[in-house]
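Hi P.,

Sorry for the delay on this. The queue was packed all week, but I finally got your sequence through. Input first:
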Amino acid sequence: MEMMEYDYNTSRKNLVLPEYGRNIQQMVDQILATTDRVKRNQMTQALISVMGNLNPHLRDIHDFKHKLWDHIAIMSDFKLDIDYPYDIPVPETFQAKPKIVDYPQSAIRYKHYGKILERMIQTACDMPDDDERRALIQIIANHMKKSYLTWNREAVDDQVIVNDFLVLSKGRLKLDETYRLEETREILNKGKKKRDKVMIPSPKKHRSF
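Then the structure:
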């Protein structure tokens, strides 16, 4: 009795881009084997549409169509001779090492407040002494208290916020009695309500018969 041969994935060649699956790879291989250049172009255009529908998340990427054409080139091992709508992809482009990202080296005085808040205080320092600056200082101070409670959910003495604000502004700004900080209880209750709102599912509607 003749034994049947099974085509297992383990016996096939590895997929270059597994996220597209073996069917898409086979279509690319079929285009590669097509000798008519006009037909190759037509088949590639059709395959680009299919790949876009299979990966709708790519639409959120800037110039996602360019990304799809690059993927076809990669899956064809850069051997696909077609009319690319962009610069013809070459292997060297995808083998280049990413550029080194320069991270800010300046130290953060209080990590629980963050660097952006420090910049906001600096902005307030550079503003003229008017109602707009007072409004900004009020917002920053309450945000500091919220950030502190996120880091330490037990409690926070308002004097800690006052002192930290003075330090971060390098003595240029002071939270006096005219500024009001939110009560700790108010801040924690707001956070709890937000979490409860996210966790509680909406009630299901039952059909009446």
